[in-house]
């Protein structure tokens, strides 16, 4: 049977060898000299060979045996390997290393996550993050396929997602987006029926109108555009108007205006989506808690 080598005993051996004495090693280890001697003797018994030459006097320096000289670099290697693993696992537990994967709907990805992630990784230079932004359906698929640790999305028709946990964090109102020179741009609030006389452009968030009194707008839409960049370009070109959640509205746009839709008032709920039967890595769990703890100052 192979001997089970204790890291503490290996450290004692290396210190005695490097410091040329049991007394100096005892001081470094904050132990008594007899305790260090006992530790070395037990290590020698496990290895089956003496590590140090017998001293002729207490004043003589402690010297390694040929076996001890051969074992010294091996002991150092074992200690270094142990310390690397211990450090890696400690950093992983403290979410300062590892690989974190998450996906988010574009509105949260662009409006809220940059500030949150910047603060979260401030003291974690060895934490690698893979980040994907897509619509809610795509985010949910990535969660289902375990391509990401968790997602940030709306959980549409929650009864169909019994395998997931949803923690709502943000909510934003649906409004109408049009050019600044559009006839609706001067309105402070809108009734859904006022939109029917204009060309409507549907998008991925338009289904939020389903099961509301504004649902007829979906059938009225002449265009459907899934990509947000293309949608904004069409709106800025004056092709038509659309409905969007407030977070999805491009706040830096100089040509578009957001008008709240008050009849009906439709609210989108966005939050953390994760598989209910799967444990998260320490980094993913820490980021979720960080987002929840700081969400009140970010929405």
Give the number of domains.
3
The structure class reads alpha/beta
Record field, number of beta strands: 10
Biggest pleated sheet: 8 strands, mixed
- Low-pLDDT runs: none
Q: Mind telling me the CATH class of the largest domain?
A: Alpha Beta
Could you say what the CATH topology of the largest domain is called?
D-Maltodextrin-Binding Protein, domain 2
Q: Quote the beta fraction.
A: 15-25%
First-last Cα distance: 62 Å
For the record, the CATH architecture of the largest domain stands as: 3-Layer(aba) Sandwich
Task: Describe this entry's structure for a reader.
It is a single chain. With 299 residues, this protein is of the alpha/beta class. The chain folds into 3 domains: 7-93, Arc Repressor Mutant, subunit A (Orthogonal Bundle), CATH 1.10.10.10; 98-170 and 278-297, 3-Layer(aba) Sandwich (D-Maltodextrin-Binding Protein, domain 2); 171-268, 3-Layer(aba) Sandwich (D-Maltodextrin-Binding Protein, domain 2), CATH 3.40.190. The protein is 38% helix and 21% strand. It contains 10 helices and 10 strands. It has helices at residues 7-19, 22-29, 33-47, 66-93, 106-111, 113-120, 136-144, 216-220, 228-236, 282-294; strands at residues 97-104, 126-133, 150-153, 164-179, 190-191, 201-202, 223-224, 242-245, 256-263, 267-275. Strands 1, 2, 3, 4, 5, 8, 9 and 10 form an 8-stranded mixed beta sheet that branches. A two-stranded parallel sheet has the order 6-7. Strand 6, helix 8 and strand 7 form a beta-alpha-beta unit. Helix 1 packs across helix 2, helix 1 crosses helix 3 and helix 2 packs across helix 3 (33-47). The radius of gyration is 32 Å and the shape is rod-shaped. The protein starts with 6 loop residues before the first helix and ends in a 5-residue tail after the last helix. The model has no long low-confidence stretch (mean pLDDT 91).
């Amino acid at each position: 049977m192979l001997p089970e080598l204790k890291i503490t005993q290996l450290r004692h051996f290396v210190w005695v060898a490097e410091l040329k004495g049991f007394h100096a090693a005892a001081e470094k280890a904050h132990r008594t000299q007899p305790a260090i001697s006992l530790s070395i003797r037990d290590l020698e018994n496990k290895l089956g060979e003496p590590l140090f030459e017998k001293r002729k006097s207490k004043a003589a320096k402690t010297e390694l045996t040929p076996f001890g000289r051969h074992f010294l670099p091996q002991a150092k290697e074992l200690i270094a390997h142990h310390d690397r693993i211990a450090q890696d696992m400690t950093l992983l537990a403290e979410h300062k290393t590892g690989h974190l994967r998450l996906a988010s709907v574009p509105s949260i990805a662009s409006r809220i996550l940059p500030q949150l992630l910047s603060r979260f990784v401030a003291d974690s230079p060895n934490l690698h993050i893979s980040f994907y932004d897509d619509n809610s359906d795509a985010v949910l698929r990535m969660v289902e396929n375990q391509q990401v640790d968790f997602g940030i999305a709306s959980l549409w028709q929650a009864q169909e997602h019994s395998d997931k946990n949803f923690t709502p964090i943000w909510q934003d109102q649906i409004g109408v987006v049009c050019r600044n020179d559009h006839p609706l741009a001067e309105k402070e609030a809108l009734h859904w029926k006022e939109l029917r006389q204009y060309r409507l452009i549907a998008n991925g968030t338009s289904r939020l109108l389903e099961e509301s009194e504004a649902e007829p707008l979906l059938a009225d839409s002449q265009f459907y555009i899934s990509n947000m960049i293309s949608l904004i370009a069409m709106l800025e070109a004056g092709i038509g108007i659309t409905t969007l959640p407030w977070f999805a509205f491009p706040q830096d746009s100089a040509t578009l205006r957001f008008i709240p839709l008050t009849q009906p008032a439709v609210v989108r709920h966005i939050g953390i989506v994760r598989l209910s039967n799967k444990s998260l890595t320490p980094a993913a769990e820490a980021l979720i808690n960080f987002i929840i703890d700081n969400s009140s100052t970010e929405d």
